[in-house]
Specification:
The protein is an alpha/beta fold. It has four helices and three strands; from the N terminus they run E-H-H-E-E-H-H. The chain has one domain.
Amino acid sequence: MSNIDSYGSLYSEDEKTLKYDFVLIHQGILDNLYDFFNENVGHHEKEISMQTIFDNIRSKIKAKHRYIIHSGRSKPDKIPKGVAFILFSSLQKVLDDSKFSLCQLLYSSRIQ
């Protein structure tokens, strides 16, 4: 079994700048993580929040500019602090269009 570190660091070679400008995560993945971590929570235990789950993701995957959640459904109720949201249809449209359109969408996404 291969080690995930063999695929490379999240940082550039000088370890001062990040390789990724944006990190996009589909809302369905976050929903699955939320359900997974909370399915065995007992009555006396505290539910793990979406913010806690996203903070864990944020500690492992670094973004230079921002984190963006995308979904084909409407805007979710529980968007973590400091995270932007875009509709999947908008993302799909700019991916079919051009790099310029993609950059415009990502940089104009609003942080919640």
